[in-house]
Amino acid sequence: MLASTLWLIAVLTTLGVPALLLCGWIRWSKQKNSYPRSRSSTLSLLGFSLATASAALGLATHLYARFVHSFPFSDPVLMKIYAVGCLLSIVGIALGVAGTGRPNAVRWFAPVCAFGTLLFWLLALGSE
């Protein structure tokens, strides 16, 4: 039961989060001026950007390990990458939640995607 739950979470974080990030950026780019600029929208956008940066770090790390240099077990550089990815996600969650006060284009995308990237990093760390 636990293994199937972890597998489901892994699939959702590796497929669902990138899809949500893409949908969020498309929605943000099409917003025009339908949402007024406010502190909430700025915080949501910052949180969403950090979630995107965390996901990009995960993708870049995977591609680097796959094609350039594989990391040995418990490599200190890899552990630092995991820490930075977790930190980006945690700050993204905090900013995303702080930005939910008023409607904006990425109001709910920011905390959900940041939480998804945090799950990704925790699963990656747990598999180490």
Layout of SSEs?
Layout: H1 2-30, H2 39-67, H3 76-98, H4 109-126
Helix pairs in contact: 1-2, 1-4, 2-3, 2-4, 3-4
Category by helix and strand content: mainly alpha
Shape: elongated
How are helices and strands ordered from N to C? HHHH
Number of domains: 1
Distance between the termini: 21 Å
Beta-strand share of residues: under 5%
Poorly predicted residue ranges: none
Largest sheet composition: none
* Quantity of strands, as a count: 0
Radius of gyration over alpha carbons?
A: 16 Å
How does this structure look, described?
The protein has 128 residues and is mostly helical. It has one domain (2-126). It is built from 4 helices and no strands. The chain has helices spanning 2-30, 39-67, 76-98, 109-126. The longest helix has 29 residues, at 2-30. The protein starts with a helix and ends with a helix. The mean pLDDT is 91.
Write out key terms for the chains shown.
single chain, 4 helices, mainly alpha, 128 residues
What is this structure, in a nutshell?
The protein has helices spanning 2-30, 39-67, 76-98, 109-126.
